[in-house]
Every structure is written in structure tokens, then in C-alpha cells.
Amino acid sequence: MDYVHVLQAFYEVLKLVNLFYLFIGTLAGIIAGTIPGLTFTTAIILALPFTFGMDPISGLTLMIGIYTGGASGGLVTSTLIGIPGTPSAVTTMFDGHPMSQKGESGRALGLGIIASVFGTIFGAIILFFFGPLVAKISLKFGPWEVFSLMVFALTLIAGLSGASLLKGLIAGLFGLLIATIGYDPNGQLRFDFGMDSLASGIAPLPALMGLFGLSTLLKNIEELRNPISKPKTKANIRIPMLQVCKDMIREKFVVVQSSIIGVLIGALPAAGAETAAFIAYDQAKKFAKDKEKYGTGHPGGIIASEASNNANAGGSFIPSITLGIPGDMASAVMLGVLIMHGITPGPGLFQAQPVLAQSIFVALLLSAFMLLITQTALLPLLVRISYIPMAVLVPSIIVFSCLGAFALNNQMVDVWMVVIFGLIGYVLDKIDVPIGPIILGLLLGPKAEEELMKALQINSEITPFFAHPISLIFLLLTVSSIVLTIWKNRKSKTITKAE
Amino acid sequence: MADKIFSIVTLTIAGIFLINSRLFAEKSGTQAVSSAFFPRIIIYALIFSSLILLVSSFLKKSKQQGEGAKGASIAFLRHHWRVPFMFAWFMIYLILMPILGFFPSTVLFLFVGYLVLNISFLKKKLLIYIPLSLILTFVIQFIFENELQVILP
Q1: Residue A224 in contact with partner chain B when CB distance is under 8 A
Q2: Which domain holds residue A142?
């Protein structure tokens, strides 16, 4: 490993301007995570236009701040009012809310914050050691291996499909199909239907803004009739640091175990922070001596949930930056951001732009400390922010996302794309069609086609895909992934029927 | 019913793309395969998956069929009328923006949006929403035009 690049990355990220962006990002992420209904994925999308004028390291620093802050921000409402700010904070609620109801809100929040900080640092360290290693191995991949890897990544659609694998598959294929609009790798114009605006293809970012941003806001309007109840606790909460430290030492095994689970799940493409949190919580409970106390305000429950969902970030960056495959939806958005800045995530990133690649690890590491300072110091403010009414937030965020899309190319056509994809996202959600696979198809489709064309140009036979060992492994993993998902779906249906 | 409509829509989209792919189905001398090769693999897979969904939706006994599903949709719209309203209002805003300009159209959009989404209408909230719409629009315009150098409509 070239430590000069690591030191250069530290020098870049530690510049005052980048530390400021990291602070703003962390704060924005925490706020987005704190407000139920808003996710940090939405916050990353909204922050996108602000990165246009920045250099890539500054833009990434801002985004990583939002990512880390958002992963932890959900704990405030989960603990105080029993409504998870983010899906990954659902398990925090299991013990955080009961602890808060016992009058120990400060202890619950303190445990969540410290566990989040530990999880983030753990994830960053793993990324530092394993990121370059995976990238080094993947540099040896030819077009056959990369195409097979893309096919494998596309089967992970199953992980984003929820109950209906078939609908998820259709959504993924739809994403792949719309990714073919515009010029192909040979410069041939396809599927423009006589419209100039389609010649340059469907840009992933307006599609993301529509599918995740606008459709989420429309869904939030449905929740207006269910106002959030205010907690009985005072806004001026103090964290008993001594007590929190004692709890952390007592639950040290849970901290490490949950962080490992978070990183491992994060490194699996498309698995997501919520999966990590559920598995970590379950494992912590299984290994606990006093497992009957879980769900009633046990410190281990909060620690397991928060350490794992923050460690997940470091893990999810491994496939994102080394292979160009998003670890979860938030890293899919960040992949889009890198592409927009002219950076191609993938095996070559550590060779072509080593300082930028290492600055991801540095920013992630520093964001842990920023998280600790911001969340501890601004806790009373965060409690108040969680009560901003949706009636005010929804129209304001719509205007922001509209201008964010407009700022991409200074064209209204991108804003109309947000509208179209927003409607598609909302309607598909209503009929239980998962949206995630569309994005996966849209992001991975062009790369998969490019590699397939390269492979067929070298050898027009399909046998090399099976003859190259690594390619064969990916194809076998693809088949296993499909078979396993079908088996799991059938098993869960049988259990449901039996119940 | 939703699965039937969804599969028919995806079949129609796949059909349109398949017909359109004939325009670039011939490969050039330098190409190993034509430009329609990859999209057609996806289109055939999409047709196959949509047909399975369509057939299974006919075989599956739906809980909400015919009038039941229609009734549920009407009830949903009656209960959540703000969703289609805000969507339509957003489209009107986008049409108005190039005509009226960013500032007046955004103030109008925000103000009406705040009012419509406010479940319990109170006169005193008008006093909050008017300055809020004005200040927020000004702040957004300032950030985008001065900090991000985006020329707004």
C-alpha cells in the first residue's frame, strides 16, 4: 500500500473547507435521519446540486457526512417517540424507546451515538485495509469476468425485491431497458423515438430524484393525517457519559460483533443497513445472558442496532468503489455522484485516482468524530427539528429537488424526468413493485453491455464466459443466488400458509 | 387486477421497444453483434417475465376484484386527495415557471402547497406561510444563482 497517497488524502480532507463540508453533511444527514419520512438517500439526492461546483473530494466529503449522519440520525425519533427516523433504526426503537419511557432518554441516546461512532470507525478501518486489496484482485478481470460480475450483481435484484421476486425482476429489466436509450457503445442511436431529449439517454440522477425523492414525498402526504405525538421527555436532554461508557464496556462483545456484522452485510451488494441492524440485533439477543430483557430497554439492543447500521457504510463502500457495484441504495446514489463528476468507480480507481480513493476512507473516519461532536452538542436542537410539520417540508423539498434536477444541465427536460419517474415510483410502490431494481438496472446496464460487446468483439463465442475460472465462479454464484431466493420465497410462503 | 394492468403495460412497452429495435438490427462490418443484440435479450426476458405474471394473476384469486378494487381506489383517492392534487400542482408549477419566472411561481407553489397540506386550517398560519414562502424562495434563489451559478428560468 502506498502510504503517501493516504497522507495526501488526509491533507486534502483536513483542509478547512472540506472539514466544513463534512460538518454540514453530517448535520444535514442527522437532520434527514431525524425527520421521520425523510431518508438520508433523499438527503444525498437533495445535496447533489451543491456538489456541482466543488472538486470531487469536497463533493464526496459532503456526501459521506450525510451518509454517516443519516445512518445515525434515525435514533433520535426511534428513542424518543417510537417512530424510526430511518428503516435502519427500527431495531434501535425496540430497546431505545422503552429505555426512554423509563426516564433514561439521555442514556439511550448516548449509547446510540457512541455505538454509531464506533461502528463508523470500524467500517472505515475495514475499508482502508480491504478496499485496495479487492481493487487489486479485480484489476486482473477481463471483459468476461466483469460481465459475469455484472450479471451476478443484477441477480441481487432479489435482495431488493421484497416479497415478489418476479415483480422485482420485471422492474430490474425495465431499468436495464431504459438504460439502453440513447447512444450504444458503438455510437449507434437507439430508442430515441424521434425526440432529441432522449438522444443522450436517461440520466440516472433525475430518475433517482423522481423514484426516491418525489415518490417518497408523495407517500409522506398520505401520512399527514397521522401527526407525530410529542414525547413526554424534555427537549433539554443530557447524556450521562459515565453511565454510557460503563454500558459500552459491559457490552464490548456486542459492539465488536455488531460492527463485524454491519461491515459484512454492507459489503454484500444490495443488502442494506436495515438487514445488518436486524441480524446484529438478533445475534446480540441470542448471545446475551439476559436475553429476556431485550425489548424492554436493554443497552445491548441499542448498541447492536446502531453499531451495525453505521459500520455498514464502510462495508458498502468496498463493492461500490472497487467493483462499481452499489452496496445499498445510498451508495448507488453516491456512485451516480462519482459518475457525474467524471470519476469511474471500479477496479481502476485506486490506480487512476489513489488520493481520491483514499479520501473516501479518510472522510468516513473523520465523519465518526464529526458525528460525535455534532450529535452530542446539538441534541436539544435535533429533538425540536423532528417536529417540523410535513406540510412545510414536502413543498419545500419538492422545490429543492426540482432545482437540483434543473441544475444538472440547465434544462427543464431533466425536471420533467423527475416528474415522470416520481409518478412511476409512486404508482409502482402502490402495486407492490419494488423501485430499487430499476435503479440497479439503470446503473449497471451500460457497463454490462459495454463489457459484453468487448468480450464478443475479442471472441464471438460464449464459451470464454465459462472457460475463465473467475467468470465461471460469478456465473455459478448467479445461479446459486437465484435458486436460493426461489427456495427462500417458497419456504416463507409455506410458513405463512401454515400459520 | 393491479398485476394484470402492470403486466399488460410492461408487455406493451416491451412490444414498442422490440418494434423500434428493427431500426438498428443490422450489424456493421466492425460489429461482432448488432446494436439491437443486448436490448433484445432484455426485451425477450421482459416479455417472458411479464407473461408469467399475467398468467399467474389470472390463476390467483384476488381479494379485491372488479367493483371491490374500483371502490377501494375511489376511497383511497377520496381519503388522500392531496396526493394527486400536489402532483398536479407541481406540474402546473413547472409549466408556470418559464412563463412567470422562478420567483413568483415558486412563492405561489409553496404558499398553496403549505395551505393544502395543512390538515387543520388556522388563520394565524397564513401569517406564517406568506413570509415563509417569500423567505424560502429568496434563499433558494440566492443559493442557486449566486453560490451554484445556476441561471434559473
Answers
A1: yes
A2: 3-494
- The number of distinct structural domains making up chain A is 1
**CB A32 within 8 Å of CB A70:** yes
* Helix, strand, or coil (residue A295): coil
Contact of A313 with A60, CB cutoff 8 Å: no
Residue A345's region, left for phi above 0, alpha for psi from -120 to 50, else beta, is beta
Contact B53, A431 (CB under 8 A): no
A427-437 in b/e form (b: 16+ CB < 10 A) is bbbeeebbbbb
Three-state secondary structure call for residue A234? coil
Residue A200 phi/psi, 5° resolution?
-85, 5
How many Å is the maximal CA-CA distance in chain B?
Answer: 73
Mean pLDDT in residue range A260-275? 76
CB contact burial B97-108 (16+ within 10 A = b; e otherwise): beeeebeebbbb
pLDDT computed for residue B14 by the predictor: 94
Percent of chain A at pLDDT > 90 equals 16
Cβ pair A62, A24 in contact under 8 A: yes
Distance from CA of B23 to the nearest CA of A (A): 8
Name the residue of chain A whose CA is nearest to B76's CA: A222
Distance CA B46, CA A122 (A): 42
Mean pLDDT of all residues in A107-131: 90
For residue A115, give the nearest of A276, A305, A265 by alpha carbon. A305
Closest of A315, A270, A333 to residue A59, by C-alpha: A333
Give the Cα separation of A48 and A59 in Å (integer): 8
Q: Can you give the pLDDT at residue B104? A: 93
Whether residue A499 is contained in a domain is answered as: no
Is the CB of residue B83 less than 8 Å from the CB of residue B30? Answer: no
Interface test with A, best of B4, B73, B90 (most A CBs within 10 A): B90
Q: Which residue of B has its CA nearest to A397?
A: B110
Burial letters for A248-268: b for 16+ Cβ neighbours within 10 Å, e otherwise? beebeebbebbbbbbbbbbbb
DSSP structural state of residue A190: E
Whether pLDDT at B130 is above 90: no
A393 in contact with chain B, both atoms CB, cutoff 8 A: no
Q: Is residue A289 part of a domain?
A: yes
Query: Quick one: how many helices (H) and strands (E) in chain A?
Result: 26, 2
Reported ipTM: the value is 0.87
Q: Is residue A164 part of a domain?
A: yes
Q: Rounded to the nearest 10 degrees, what angle do helices A252-267 and A241-250 cross at?
A: 70
Residue B109 has pLDDT above 70, yes or no: yes
Helix (H, G, I), strand (E, B) or coil at A182: strand
Mean pLDDT score of chain A, rounded to an integer? Answer: 82
pLDDT confidence bin for A43, thresholds 50/70/90:
confident
User: Where is A183: in which H helix or E strand?
Assistant: strand A182-183
SS (H, E, C) A87-150: HHHHHHHHHHHHHHHCCCHHHHHHHHHHHHHHHHHHHHHHHHHHHHHHHHHHCCCCHHHHHHHH
Chain B residues with beta carbon closer than 8 angstroms to that of A225: 119
Q: Which amino acid is at A243?
A: Q
Separation CA A81–CA A427 (nearest Å) = 30
